[in-house]
Amino acid sequence: DHQMRAWLKVHALPYRLVANKIDQVKASRRQGQQKRVAQGLESSVAEIQWVSATEGLGMASLRQDVVKLLE
Length: 71
Prior knowledge:
- With 71 residues, the protein is mainly alpha-helical.
- It has helices spanning 2-10, 27-40, 59-70, and strands at residues 17-19, 48-50.
- Strands 1-2 form a two-stranded parallel sheet.
- β1 (17-19), α2 and β2 form a beta-alpha-beta unit.
- It is flat, with a radius of gyration of 13 Å.
C-alpha cells in the first residue's frame, strides 16, 4: 500500500485512500482504530474514506469519488 501510494504521488496520479470493513470494528473502538490506521498511512482520519460494503456505509460517497477521479 505504501509503495503504490508513493508511485501514484511520483507520477502525480490522483488516488483515494479507502478503508473497508469498518462495520467489523465496534462503534466504541472505531475512533481509535481510525486514528491507528491513519497514523499507519501517514494521513489524517479525514483523508481516508471509511466504508462497509456489507452495510453500505460510505459506499455512495466512494462511488462519487471514483466517478470524479475517472473524469
